[in-house]
Amino acid sequence: MTLVTAEMSISLDGYFAGPRSDETDWTKSPEALGFFRITRWVVNAQSWRERMGYAGGEQSVNSDLAAELTARNGAYVMGRRMADGGEGPWGEEPPFHGPVFVVTHRERETRHCQGGTSFTYVTDGLESAIAQAREAANGKNVLISGGGTTVQQAIAAGQVDELVLHIAPVLLGEGQRLLDNLGVSTGHGRELTPERVVHTQDVTHLVYRVGKAASLFLDDRGSGDGEA
Amino acid sequence: MTLVTAEMSISLDGYFAGPRSDETDWTKSPEALGFFRITRWVVNAQSWRERMGYAGGEQSVNSDLAAELTARNGAYVMGRRMADGGEGPWGEEPPFHGPVFVVTHRERETRHCQGGTSFTYVTDGLESAIAQAREAANGKNVLISGGGTTVQQAIAAGQVDELVLHIAPVLLGEGQRLLDNLGVSTGHGRELTPERVVHTQDVTHLVYRVGKAASLFLDDRGSGDGEA
Fold first, then answer.
1. What's the DSSP call for residue B202?
2. Per-residue pLDDT tens digits for A160-209
3. Cis peptide bond upstream of B147, omega within 30
4. A55-85, pLDDT tens digit by residue?
5. A171 to B183: CB separation less than 8 angstroms, yes or no
6. Facing residue for B197 by CB, picked from A30, A42, A197
């Protein structure tokens, strides 16, 4: 069964990158400093490096997990900024090897790349992109690849079945928070079911199933009124 | 060796309570709704209920862990709002059974309660309270009990050796975030060492050693420039 899954690396204080920057050389900005610290574990992983066409890397629990999670994906959804940002670095053979649906306001022809990656530009919104990706995934999962705001919008729209967080052991103190703007209204919560935890020295991986938003109830047994 | 440890229950999106409320009946506010959802795991724990003087509760991994963590503590530091808020519910035998140092602006005589709990009111700041608690802990740990802003201030002051987070599997969408105002300056991060993870269906416990704030470095091997 196809799951829509979102997967992001964040710091323990919840940031997926440093403060947003519009510098021309992004890699010199605090945004990039934070981003590269948080994603270091995957950049070190042999499986990820191989998929990106980079040499080296560590054979490790982290590398195995990255490979396992990636193997589940049949199609991808991403935001326009991420797709644009990747267009240079990903080169002629982007690391997706499957259909990618880019949420954008700008019409553009589908781009077919080497290695089986295609980029389809979807101008009628995130939910349409997810629906198209579900069709294309052929029973495998749809990964909301990012960036952070696209993940937020997908969670807020109730479209994410599974949330995978890779928690890097660092406090950044500032930056762009992943779990903001989630569309949960006051007095409600969106309940999750913890499915799996993988713990290493470099990162803690948390896998949750995402439930529906539901009213919080007054469970004041801890307030002293619940005394038996 | 005495460690200064901070321990809080938070939602996956980082909140220790709902939005701050000044309602007279706090338990009816969204702040309390969030707080009681997040702390439900410990209110269900037999060891915690016993310490609070409440009947019932579950014998569980969570209960054992709560007991184990509590047994390490020789003295406590807390903020004024938490101490005031507890004064009613904790009754004549508060659940600390040791010296508590309350950071406040208001001078007040030390209060000695039944069961070995004392409240000493410290008017010359958090670091002084922590120093006094270290003396009083007799080789055991000093627990920064809360509330959230006191934990933040202690982390920002570089006074916390160990951070224990109990992550409740819920997205609240709004509230008071624990890991804010940490005094980390732009381009820096405070590195942590993951020490332990305990995973249950109700909560995920993460234990970190807290390191020094250090400059982030440009690790752009994942940007395409690091191609080998």
1. S
2. 999 999 999 999 999 999 999 999 988 899 999 999 999 999 999 999 99
3. yes
4. 999 999 999 999 999 999 999 999 999 999 8
5. no
6. A197
pLDDT band at A225, cuts 50/70/90?
Answer: low
- Report d(CA B92, CA B50) in Å as an integer: 15
Å from B147 to nearest chain A CA?
15
- Whether B37 contacts chain A with CB within 8 A: yes
Kind of pairing between the strands at B204-215 and B162-168: antiparallel
CA distance linking residue A37 with residue A43, whole number of Å: 10
CB atoms within 10 A of CB A186: 14
Residues 83-112 of A with CB under 8 A from B: 88-91
Residues ≥6 apart with Cβ < 8 Å to B216: A18, A30, A33, A34, A36, A37, B187, B188, B189
- The domain in which residue B40 lies consists of 4-222
Interchain CB distance below 8 Å, B223 and A33: no
Contact B54 A189 (CB under 8 A): no
Give dist(CA A197, CA A218) in Å, integer: 29
What is the domain count for chain A? 1
Q: Does B212 touch chain A (CB under 8 A)?
A: no
**Upper half-sphere CA count for residue A94 (Cβ side, 13 Å):** 20
CA B104 – CA B122 distance, rounded (Å): 6
* A57 belongs to a structural domain: yes
- A194, B222: Cβ pair inside 8 Å? no
- Residue B227 inside a domain? The answer is no
Q: What is the pLDDT of residues A21-31, one digit of tens each?
A: 887 787 788 89
CA distance B211 to B189: 10
Residue A221, chain B, CB below 8 Å: the answer is: yes
Q: Do A11 and B189 touch (CB under 8 A)?
A: yes
Say if A32 falls within a structural domain: yes
Q: How far is CA B128 from CA B45, B76, B96, B159, B183, in A?
A: 33, 13, 20, 11, 19
What phi-psi label fits residue A79: left (phi over 0), alpha (psi between -120 and 50 degrees) or beta?
beta
Q: How does strand A111-112 pair with strand A162-168?
A: unpaired
Q: How far apart are CA A53 and CA A77, in angstroms?
A: 21
Q: How many other C-beta atoms lie within 10 A of the C-beta of residue B78?
A: 26
Do residues B189 and A37 make contact, with C-beta atoms less than 8 angstroms apart?
yes
Q: What is the CATH number of the domain that holds B214?
A: 3.40.430.10
Residue A220 resides in a domain: no
